[in-house]
Structures are given as structure tokens and as C-alpha cells.
Amino acid sequence: MATTIEQPEKTKAEPELLGLLAEFDDPHALVAASTKVRDAGYNRWDTHTPFPMHGIDEAMGIKWTILPWIVAACGLTGGTIAISMQYWMNAVDYPFLISGKPLFSIPACIPITFELSVLLAAFGAFFGMLGLNQLPKLYNPMFKSEAFRRVTNDRFFLSMDASDPKFSEIDTGEFVKSLNPIHVEEFWSDVESPKLPRNLKLGLSLVGVFMLMPIALVAYKRSTVTDTPRIHIVPDMDFQPKLKTQNTTGIFGDGREVRPHIPGTIPRGQFKDDNVPFYYGLKELPEDQDVITIAVQDEKQADEKKPAADEKPAEAGKADAQPAADAKAAEDDKLAKLPWVTEFPMPVTEKMMARGKERFRIYCSVCHGLGGEGDGLVTLRAMDLQQGTWVKPASYHTDNVRKQPVGRLFNTITNGVRKMPAYGPQIPPEDRWAIVLYVRALQKSHQVDAKTLTDEEKQKLRDTK
Prior knowledge:
Elements: E1 17-24, H1 27-40, E2 45-48, H2 56-60, H3 67-93, H4 106-132, E3 156-161, H5 171-177, E4 183-188, H6 198-223, H7 235-238, H8 276-280, H9 291-304, H10 313-336, H11 350-363, H12 365-368, H13 377-385, H14 399-402, H15 406-415, H16 429-445, H17 455-463
Helix pairs in contact: 3-4, 9-10, 11-16, 15-16
Keywords: Heme, Iron, Membrane, Metal-binding, Transmembrane, Transmembrane helix
InterPro entries: ActD, Cyt_c-like_dom, Cyt_c-like_dom_sf
Organism: Gimesia panareensis
């Protein structure tokens, strides 16, 4: 005979007393009551007001928050991470020499360090505030109180937590009533967990679906190919009516969008007098020649006669070697006939030499190399690629370059030559002459035998390295 075991009936959970809620109609009464609760030794209680109240923190005995220390720790952590990251990237993992600059420099790291410190400090302030306040709290049993709903309007409340060690349902209740509130009530825990309304569930489901749609759309676009152009929401921003560098246009006859400098002109603010040697490197301006464009145009024409990258070297050499050589010779002859200055049009000083060395390492050494041999980092990289479009810079120590007057070297820096762009708009005339002076020093350094130097001169050279 089978027997059945009767299951015990589930007992309904009994509500638990969570605390007491006292209502006041005056902020001063709440401050006075808070002072008495603090003096009574209660630790787990709180006040609720419709607006911030001055003096309530002192009345409650609230201690200073540790949030500033959290913010400071997060900020220092961000700064440490930024400094360490930049040191590792620049000085250890991928060191890259640029114009003699140090591999690691604190001033250069300040922007990223500042940004990361502020970012982590802001995270610390935001999430620290949420954690210390135990937020977010979406529900509190006090919300069931009809009287408590006026806490956002014109009522002031004091809540006593039943988990306080000094809390007693009878004694604490009498104590709260002695604070002269207009109303005291108990608040209890919920026996049954409230169910979300059906409409709310449906709304949250729709929101979740809509939030997934952008992610799904991006994934779809990344996995498909289309022939139609993208949508331009603001076409004026995507197609601005302006000319850009290194693009072509039909507006001007030469087809270039960027306009070259007007021949014979000097940028505004640089020309202080009619000092032709200082600004042009010439003793006087020829009347029948365009000084500004001579070097640029002739060098460009000679460069265009070089074989194309996709042309076979042997065939290109036979077809274009003689025309290119003739164009080069004609260009050299035209430049040699100009009245270049042979002396510096400004006093030569040690300060000028130091300035020239500094400017040379910034603007010139990347291609020409620190010693002027034409072995800079850019040149070495371009030669390794072997794309056929790079013209290796000439060494400063060849007879052709050493015999050039200082005025012609100044003109080369100003207007460029072959693949070298014009540095006149970037480097002031004083610095261009300083660079020429340093180039002359490099050239002379290769013509002096170290054995002929005295011990004092050798020591001076060591000290200036």
C-alpha cells in the first residue's frame, strides 16, 4: 500500500521592522532633533530634506568623506600610467632619434599626463561617490509612506534604522516622540516582491531591441560591400568649396590648387630694408632674370627628364641620360653666372654658429645626416624602399658643393633644389645664414688633418660635442 508524504505548507514570510520615520514641518526643528539623536549615540540614521540645508552635517556629526583621497589616488595613478606608458613607448620599446631631441622629455609628456590624470580622477569622483552613497537605489520601503511623499516639497524627515545597535522598538520610539515631530510611523520590509507592470516589461523589451539595432547595422555594413556612395547628412561639410594642397584644379592655368609665391616678393614682416645680400644671397638683383624661380624651375625641368619609376633602367638610361645631363649643365651654368655673395652679410659669432647647428639638426639632418654626408634617416629609409622616386641629397663635402658661394647655398635653402622643398617660408633669413655657416664648418672639418691640431684645440672640440 503506497503512502504519500504530505508537503508542509509554505509559511508566509513575516514583515520585518526596518525603522522609524519622524516628520517635521520646520527645518530648524529637524536640525535640533538631529543634534539630540547624535548626542544620544545613534549611528545608523539619516535626514531627508527637500533642499540642501546648511548646518545639517554638523548637527548629524557627519565625518569628512574619503572621496578626495579616492580622487587624488586615481589622479596620481593616471599620471603614473601616462608617464610610464610614454617612457616605455619612446625610450624603450621604439626609440626614434629626431633632430637630436631626447628620447624622453617630461615637458613633452605633460599633455597626455594631464589628460589621463584628469580622466581617472573624474572616474574616481563619479564612481567613488556612487559607491560611498551605495547608489543606485531604485527602491526604499519608505516610499510606501504617504507622508514621506512630501519630502520633495515642504516636509523634513528623520529616519532611524532598526539595524542600529542602540535601536529598541519601545525605547527608540519614545525617544523619537520626545523630539516633538508632527508625525511618527514605522516602516516595514516587503513580504512579496513587487512585479513589474506588463506595459513596463514591454517597453523595456522594445528599448533593448532598439539598442541592438545600431550594433547590428554596423556589423552588417562591415560585412557587406556596396557600390552606392555613403549618405552625406551635411553635404556642405563634406564638400567644402575650397582649394587644398597637392590637388589639381581647372581654375588656374598650371592646374595647381596651392599657389606658388609671387616671384620677387618676400613674406610680409620679413623685409625690413633693401638689404639684397641678406634676403637673396646676391650682391644685386639682375634686371633681366627672375632670381626667385631660377633654381626651382631649372632644377624641376632637369628632374622631370629622369627616367620614370616603371621604365626599365637600361632603356631609360640610353634615352634620357644625355638630355638630363645637358639640362643639368645648362642649369649649373645659369646659376654660376649670378652675382652670389661670397661673404656673410651679417656678423659671424659663436652664437650664430650654435644657432646654425641647432637649426641644421632640426631641418636638415633628417635627410642630409648629422655630418652632411646625405645619409639622414629619411634618406636611408627612402633608399631601402627603392621606389625610384627619391633623389639622394648631395654630400656637402663634394668639390661642387664646397666651391659654391655662401649666397648660392643660402638660395638653395630658400628656394629648394631637386626633391628638396623650399624652406624660405619656414626658416627666417637669420637662421638660414646660420645654417649656411654651420654647413661651412662641416665642410672645413673634413679638410683638416687631426694631426695638425694642438692639444688645446682637440680638447675644445671634445668640449663642444
